[in-house]
Specification:
This protein has 19 helices and 31 strands. It has 730 residues and is α+β, with helices and mostly antiparallel strands.
Length: 730
């Protein structure tokens, strides 16, 4: 009984604490500070949002030999990983990511897939239910530097390497792994990488990623980030240097993360000359022509060729290979460096790709560099694959094709450019500013989509049209924000548990940042703060708190209300004008002997006819109103008398926050003479509001002309979901 009583007491105590946490009598103000919701600052991450003086991160360097089996669509590989423990901790074991295991027949992803049959299924859904593809890593060995086998435990998409002795702080360890796996058909099985088969000429186009066992991140925030890969939460990886040799059929062209080390071995003299010319060209130069690609398509060589690449300070690796590749390139100057913007695409991608791909890369590097830092890597590839959009350091795979006759619509054109900008832009988020994608999709997708929108605005088109951006402007997110809250998640939700993935992780954070820049902070303060964040955390592992804190620290703007509303809730913006009253000053001096009661009646009478007398109001409680009135009037300076006699119009505008999301208030005033004015009020006008109030405020606007119409959020800047209650007209 005593034990039961203790347990009951603990349970009651927990319930009491839980109830206290939800107590409406606690601070519910929308401007309360986020401190309690953010991690405590420490020597690794400061309260300013910067890396602390003892910040650390572990590294993983790779030497890899990879072979492509084009007959059986397999990748064979061996690697030597040098893992360095820069943490202050000793590590008893290491975790390695095995992302290809998502395609094994025993995959957890298959097991948790939901589905219904009562309304029938499409062919794609039908075949998807069977999971017949023999995917997943086949690990041949995991050895140490002395070729002794490590004891390992594979847990779905993670492999634990058990160490005989803990890896001490400051020490490194060598891991040797050999493996192979079957490459998936992206057109049949989907996926972020795989192959595309061209039946007409019996050729394959390989876009290969997550192809090698990769070290997981060990950090001060999460310890080991070994959350299973289920499909949505992407990749959290340490930085390192890569030395990679890719052996493929000799008639294939290869692109990969890093710089080619043996161009003389893999390119012809003509191709080498063209590549050299491209470095200083102001437009793309074709390195491998369509005629040369067609010749490769027809050759089907059984010989092999090894392409050697090196990459420094990257967090991942991707590559591509095909006989079908046309290759063009253009140098992009950054100070005394030249970055090579390069595109690889099959003839099926033309004429769309030869016109726009490398042009889009160049604009992306220039625009993103303006908002963050100069692009630090030597190359940036855009690779054409059908129905894909995926990013890796220095290389990305992008969809977009003309039809069989080489024709394409504006929609296809702009969609292709959009995807290229977005995926090339991922070089910055998360490849350089290396956030935890497995946990927070918005930190790479949302920030990247925001800069994608800035790049789209900078696009110059031969048609003279503005880029038809689908995300960025506030009004684009309104249908989502106004939707059924049962199917909307806060942005601060783990990647695997998000409703409406695209809107949540791409659209809403992009819109939030655009509103923050254009409406809340202003471009100058925003751009400076955003650049500070990017430079503080380049080649490091930032968390959401680091971003939130840096944006405030570098701007002197308290944005806790903004982060809470946009990132931690599903509130939406709906502010209504509930009433407008017009007033003018009308002086009415009380007669001698007028009582205080009669002064109150005078004030009420004035209010009823839309006037007021500020002197009368100020002496309302005087024992001798008439004498007090004259005394106050006589004490006024000439400047104040001018204000009283200005013939101004006063408008009391009553507002209600219906949607719960705090936002600045923007008015457009239209006057009887046909002119207009705009008045902008900071979000802090709502600073006394909380969920227990009706969340209403009143604002007095003073004009020297009579107003005929007041419009709230006239430029659709705040994502107001109901504009029908935004207008007052005389």
């Amino acid at each position: 009984m005593k034990k039961a009583g203790i347990i009951l007491g603990i349970a009651v105590g927990f319930l009491t604490l839980s109830s206290w946490a939800q107590n409406p009598n606690t601070n519910q103000n929308k401007f309360r500070q986020l401190d309690a919701d953010l991690p405590t600052p420490n020597v690794y991450r400061t309260a300013s949002g910067a890396p602390g003086h003892l910040y650390w991160q572990n590294t993983a360097d790779y030497v890899m030999n990879i072979s492509l089996d084009d007959d059986n669509q397999r990748v064979y590989g061996d690697e030597v990983i040098t893992y360095t423990n820069a943490s202050p901790d000793q590590l008893e074991y290491l975790w390695v990511q095995l992302d290809q295991n998502i395609r094994s027949k025993t995959s957890e992803t298959y097991k948790i897939q939901q589905g219904k049959l009562d309304n029938g299924v499409s062919l794609y859904e039908y075949f998807r239910m069977f999971h017949t593809f023999p995917g997943g890593f086949n690990i041949e060995y995991v050895k140490d530097a002395k070729d002794q086998d490590f004891a390992v435990k594979v847990n779905h998409t993670m492999m634990r390497i058990n160490l005989d002795e803990p890896l001490q702080s400051g020490k490194s360890i060598e891991i040797k792994i050999k493996w192979w796996y079957n490459i998936n058909d992206r057109m049949e099985d989907g996926g972020r990488s795989g192959y595309e088969y061209f039946k007409e000429d019996n050729n394959y186009l390989y876009t290969i990623a997550q192809f090698f066992p990769r070290m997981a991140v060990y950090s001060d925030v999460t310890g080991w980030q070994n959350k299973q890969f289920l499909g949505n939460g992407e990749f959290t990886l340490p930085f390192g240097n890569y030395d990679v040799k890719l052996t493929v059929p000799s008639d294939m062209i290869v692109g990969a993360t890093g710089e080619i080390q043996n161009t003389n071995d893999v390119l012809s003299a003509k191709q080498l000359a063209r590549l050299e010319m491209a470095k200083t060209s102001v437009k793309p130069v074709v390195i491998v022509t369509q005629e040369e690609a067609t010749e490769n398509e027809n050759s089907k060589s059984k010989d092999t060729k090894t392409w050697h690449f090196k990459a420094e300070n990257v967090r991942d690796y991707g590559w591509c290979a095909s006989r079908k590749f046309i290759w063009d390139a253009q140098g992009v100057p950054f100070g005394d460096r030249t970055v090579m913007a390069m595109s690889l695409y099959p003839k099926e991608g033309n004429p769309l790709w030869e016109r726009y791909s490398t042009k889009a890369i160049v604009l992306t590097l220039e625009t993103y560099s303006k908002f963050t830092m100069e692009y630090p890597y030597p190359v940036a590839y855009s690779i054409n694959g059908k129905s894909i959009g995926m990013e890796y350091p220095m290389i990305c795979f992008n969809g977009g094709r003309a039809d069989a006759e080489g024709k394409y619509s504006d929609a296809v054109k702009y969609r292709t450019i959009l995807v290229i900008i977005h995926e090339v832009g991922h070089n910055y988020f998360p490849m350089i500013i290396n956030s935890d994608e497995r946990q927070w999709t918005w930190m790479d997708e949302g920030l990247n989509t925001f800069l994608q929108y800035q790049t789209e605005k900078a696009w110059t088109d031969e048609t003279g049209k503005a880029f038809p951006s689908s995300r960025g402007p506030a009004h684009k997110i309104v249908p989502y924000m106004a939707g059924d809250k049962r199917y909307i998640s806060p942005i601060m939700t783990n990647s695997e548990s998000i409703h409406q993935f695209g809107n949540n992780a791409y659209g809403k954070p992009c819109t939030a940042l655009n509103i923050l820049r254009e409406t809340v902070m202003g471009p100058e303060l925003f751009d400076y703060s955003f650049k500070v964040y990017a430079n503080r955390w380049k080649f490091k592992h930032p968390s959401p708190a680091d971003f939130f804190r840096t944006m405030e620290d570098a701007s002197a703007i308290d944005l806790d209300w903004f982060w809470r509303g946009w990132f931690y809730t599903t509130d939406h913006c709906d502010v209504a004008i509930t009433d407008v009253k017009e007033y003018q000053v009308d002086f009415t001096a009380p007669k001698t002997g007028t009582s205080r009661k009669n002064v109150q009646k005078m004030i009420k009478k004035q209010s009823n006819k839309g006037t007021f007398d500020p002197i009368l109001q100020s002496i309302a409680n005087s024992n001798d109103p008439a004498k007090a009135y004259e005394s106050v009037k006589a004490s006024l300076t000439d400047a104040r008398k001018d204000l009283l006699n200005s013939n101004a119009f006063f408008y009391q505008v009553d507002l209600q926050m219906i949607g719960g999301l705090v936002m600045p208030v923007i008015f457009k005033l239209e006057y009887t003479d046909g002119t207009e004015d705009e008045i902008r009020l900071p979000a802090e006008i709502w600073k006394m509001q909380n969920e227990r109030l009706e969340e209403t405020v009143s604002k007095v606007l003073i004009t020297n002309k009579q107003v005929t119409k007041i419009v709230l959020d006239p430029n659709l800047e705040t994502a107001d979901t109901d504009t029908s209650n935004n207008t007052w007209e005389r």
